[in-house]
Known about the structure:
- This protein has ten helices and seven strands.
- The protein has one domain: NAD(P)-binding Rossmann-like Domain (Rossmann fold).
- Strand 4, helix 5 (188-209) and strand 5 form a beta-alpha-beta unit.
- By secondary structure, it is an alpha/beta fold.
- It has helices at residues 5-29, 99-110, 123-135, 150-164, 188-209, 226-229, 235-255, 281-285, 303-310, 312-315, and strands at residues 90-94, 114-119, 140-144, 169-172, 218-222, 261-267, 322-325.
- The termini are far apart.
- The protein has a seven-stranded parallel sheet with strand order 3-2-1-4-5-6-7, with helices on both faces.
Amino acid sequence: MSPTTRDRQNAGHVAEQQRKIQREQDAHDRTAAPPAKEKKQEAVQAGVREQPVDLPAQHLDKPGIEAELALKPRFLAPAYEGSHKLQDKVALITGGDSGIGRAVAVLYAREGADVGIVYLDEHQDAEYTKRLVEAEGGRCVLLPGDVKDSGFCQRAVEATVKAFGRLDVLVNNAAFQEHAASLEDLTEERLDQTLRTNVHGYFHMAKAALPHLHNGAAIINTGSVTGFEGSPQLLDYSATKGAIHAFTKALAQNLLPRGIRVNAVAPGPVWTPLNPADKPANDVKTFGQHTDMKRAAQPEELSPAYVFLASPVCSSYITGIVLPITGSVGAE
């Protein structure tokens, strides 16, 4: 059973709800005083190629289209060579159309996996990700819908299994984020959107996937540095990420007797559509420069960790961890 026309319509409705929340916050931001400027320090480059430091002052409409970003996120990881770590595996990635999810999909395909991509209604991004997966030699199925809907999650899992015959890896990565200056600014609608997308969506997807996962399978959740440290303007989002970290550890204990590993990656600031679709343009320009490395990460700097945690060749003795990739010392 595949996602239905109703799933697509519902996804469009949810996207409009998210844009409504964004419009309300944008109107509030226009009346707020600009933040004080900080002295810029040299960014740290410790990878195989230099990553961007200066980001465009750009604000996107939700849910955020990667194709519209003036500076395209780096997701191809050209120095990463596949070595069959996920050969003949099948992965389902929520929020897989762009950002971290797209980067993970590309490397999973490079490692020999077929990929199902769950996304809301960013069809242009999703189609491009599908072409990228196919260029790596993998097969890809696109599954538009709303992860808050448990019925859709069930249909997405079933469609993936129908297309590829099995399911080995679930990556829970879809998220909703919108900043607010104070607790008083958090409406019931906004709180519901954040909690049900970021927490309920992970529960729904894991529950739907579980009957198809067997010994050696893996679930990987995307947490956040805000789940460790909190964030004064992301009260609801931080709460959901803390919940995801606890869910990861609890589910890992629950599924350990079945040989199913559950882990999480906790990113710091990463250049994806999520933050330009949240922060005002002037804040986006300096995004990530508060970290010890003085820059935001690129998705390709995160995706190898998802390969590591998915592959039984690499991490068969690892479960229940939350791996911080934050650009700062002492993230936890």
